[in-house]
Write a structure and sequence with these properties.
This protein is α+β, with helices and mostly antiparallel strands. 28% of the residues lie in helices and 23% in strands. It has a single domain, classed as Creatine Amidinohydrolase, CATH 3.90.230.10. Strand 6 and strand 7 form a beta hairpin. The two termini are 30 Å apart.
């Protein structure tokens, strides 16, 4: 590790198994929040059902109180990219929203996000979400086949720019990260191609891979609540995220119920359970 570089925390198999349990709790909590995202629901309602799942599993939120954040999830609607605060906003037919949440179980963290379209969807929003999700899976696949963390961003970037149709922008100010005994750890996981290769991919590495795409320009601003990030041109946004573990036999998606088997199989990658 070069002088001044943040140290990467590598996990044992037992530690990654605990992270998997946190990931399963989180996946169920997100299922519940996604199911609650219907026209007429308040964004606070999504927060409530998510928090109830965590409580029932004896898990705690890693979002609530994080630098003063007042909720257990982020709900970011339409032009809101990330870090939206749940509240009294009522979801409308055609809204696109990202639900980003996390939890802690026995001291180990999980982090994941999904995009949801409420009611009747604009085809352009469907495309935005589908491309963002597919880009995430290509980044995860690169974690299985690549040599350095930078390969993740290259795979995401290459895919987004290969898709037919109107160009989508990849946010550069908000990136993925390492995860373990803290929610945000080294290394940063960029969502775009650069000359920086990053640390080597090796067993014990756990990353949260989370591309954020927009239908317009990538310029953003933070609202007066000091949290909610919006596109300055009002274009709509999508975020998808999974936490992923690298171990001796391969990778396993900690926050996917099937460990990533269905989506990674389409890309020629077979995830391997932690045992």
């Amino acid at each position: 590790m070069a002088f001044g570089q943040p140290k990467v925390q590598y996990k044992s198999m037992d530690q990654m198994r605990t992270m998997r349990q946190a990931g399963l709790v989180l996946a169920t909590a997100l299922d519940t929040a996604v199911g609650a995202a219907v026209p007429g629901a308040r964004t606070a309602d999504l927060n409530s059902v998510f928090a109830e799942v965590l409580s029932d599993a004896n898990a705690t939120s890693n979002f609530l109180g994080y630098y003063g954040f007042p909720a257990t999830i982020c709900v970011s609607v339409n032009e809101e990219v990330v870090h939206g605060i749940p509240g009294e906003r009522v979801l409308q037919d055609g809204d696109i929203l990202s639900i980003d949440g996390g939890c802690i179980l026995d001291g180990w963290h999980a982090d994941s996000a999904r995009t949801v379209i409420v009611g009747e969807a604009d085809p352009a929003d469907v495309r935005l979400s589908e491309v963002t999700e597919a880009a995430m899976w290509r980044g995860i696949a690169a974690l299985a086949t690549g040599s350095h963390v930078g390969d993740v961003g290259s795979a995401i970037d290459d895919y987004v720019h290969s898709v037919d149709g109107p160009a989508l922008g990849i946010l550069e100010d908000y990136v993925g990260h390492g995860i373990g005994t803290e929610m945000h750890q080294a290394p940063d996981v960029l969502n775009y191609r650069t000359n920086h290769r990053g640390p080597k991919i090796r067993p014990g590495l756990c990353l949260a891979i989370e591309p954020m795409l927009v239908r317009g320009a990538i310029d953003t601003a933070v609202l007066s609540d000091d949290w909610t990030v919006v596109t300055t041109d009002g274009s709509r946004a999508s975020q998808w995220e999974h936490s992923v573990a690298v171990h001796d036999a391969g990778i396993w998606v900690l926050t996917a119920h099937d460990g990533g088997a269905s989506r990674l199989g389409e890309l020629g990658v077979t995830p391997v359970p932690l045992g």
